[in-house]
Design brief:
mainly alpha
């Protein structure tokens, strides 16, 4: 027995869902970056862990330029370019206020040298992904792996700071949803450059969700204790 044929409306809905996931991802990560800049300036700190920020900065610059060269001004290229500009703002807060989280017994020049080394390493890593797997596949692998690193580093940042300075539920929840959307797109539906769903991305994306939800839970508990004026001790 042959299955029921899909109507044009059904096909349009199927085509629209990936676009919805792309837009959802773009909107959520834009919220992360905007709130990261706001909190960094307000709390005189930086809101995105440095190594995750360095990898994001390199990824978004490379994929804005290479994406435009290969595809022209498509939606994802515009999103990448906007994210890169926001990353510049967060990077400013890192260089402006990040010295306080660097070992104080070291000379200030070491903070700058370490930071520039981190940015350089990030560009080498992202370029290696593109050179080995191509722009689309390499970009997806690089993005999800750095996203998993970010999920874990957010928890580490909360523990290191012993409080919620430079952190918010807006960033935590938006990062989770903004990662879950492309996890569904590439891990379940199969996105650009992949022949169907990708199990590696699905696994990494689910691990991101696991650590993101842990971070959301402990950040919410931390903020609740801070509102009550209680001492905060983030321990595992």
């Amino acid at each position: 027995m042959r299955g029921a044929q899909r109507t044009p409306a059904d096909l349009m809905n199927l085509a629209a869902f990936p676009l919805f996931l792309v837009l959802l991802c773009g909107a959520c990560w834009t919220l992360v970056y905007l709130d990261g800049i706001r909190l960094g300036l307000r709390d005189r700190t930086y809101a995105i862990p440095f190594w995750a920020l360095a990898l994001n900065f390199a990824w978004e610059l490379l994929h804005s330029v290479l994406g435009y060269q290969q595809m022209g001004p498509v939606l994802q290229v515009w999103i990448n370019a906007v994210w890169f500009l926001f990353d510049c703002g967060i990077l400013y807060t890192y260089f402006r206020y990040g010295r306080q989280w660097f070992p104080q017994h070291l000379r200030p020049c070491w903070f700058m040298l370490w930071s520039l080394l981190g940015l350089g390493v990030a560009f080498v890593i992202q370029h290696a992904f593109i050179a080995e797997f191509g722009r689309s596949v390499g970009g997806a692998y690089g993005a999800f792996l750095q996203n998993l690193l970010m999920s874990m580093l957010f928890i580490g940042m909360l523990v290191e700071r012993g409080g919620s300075a430079g952190q918010s539920m807006t960033i935590a929840v938006s990062k989770w949803v903004g990662t879950l959307a492309p996890t569904i797109l590439f891990g379940v539906l199969g996105g650009e450059g992949f022949n169907g769903p990708n199990r590696f991305i699905l696994v990494i994306g689910l691990l991101c969700s696991l650590f993101d939800l842990i971070y959301i839970a402990i950040l919410a508990q931390t903020k609740a204790r801070e509102r009550r004026g209680e001492a905060v001790a983030v321990m595992f």
